[in-house]
Amino acid sequence: MEAMLDIVVRSTEIDVNGHVNNAKYLEYLEWGREEWYERSELHYETLLAMGIQTVTVNININYRHECRQGDRLTITTTPERAGRTSYVLKQTIINADGVLCADALVTSVTMDVATRKSREIPGELRRLFAAEAL
Question: Domain residues for 122?
């Protein structure tokens, strides 16, 4: 299941070098992941009803090309792989010219709401990774 989110870079996201501040890319990726969860019908309330939350534990990002104010960007999120309690989403940020601006692998863990400990990935989430393997 792939999700795409289109955004436009705002003036408040620019640093003193005249391009997008590096920390903003992490925010863009977060927006992309939220879009992925929403399109996958795994809303925050749905996960809570299962007794879990997801927690980001690692982000490995490559900054490849600068983005500037007014640039139109597409954030794409796809499932990469799943373990027992953790899973990895692959994300890219591409500009309107088709240039790869950043890519990342984001590892998250499913956490039990009550115990605050990692918990096996529920089937509703795992199925999204199984579909990619076909």
Answer: 3-133
Q: Is residue 103 annotated as part of the catalytic site, yes or no?
A: no
Tell me: pLDDT of 131 over 90.
Answer: no
Residue the block writes with tokens 């969860």: 37
Q: What whole-number distance in Å separates Cα of residue 48 and Cα of residue 54?
A: 10
- Domain with 91 in it: what CATH number? 3.10.129.10
Among candidate residues 15, 71, 103, 112, the one labeled active-site is 15
Whether the Cβ atoms of residue 59 and residue 108 lie closer than 8 Å to each other: no
Contact indicator for 32, 5 with CB cutoff of 8 Å = yes
Q: Say if residues 103 and 95 touch (Cβ distance below 8 Å).
A: no
Is pLDDT at 133 greater than 90 in this prediction?
A: no
Confidence at residue 134, expressed as pLDDT on a 0 to 100 scale: 41
Number of domains in the chain: 1
Q: pTM of whole model > 0.85?
A: yes
pLDDT given for residue 15 in this prediction: 95
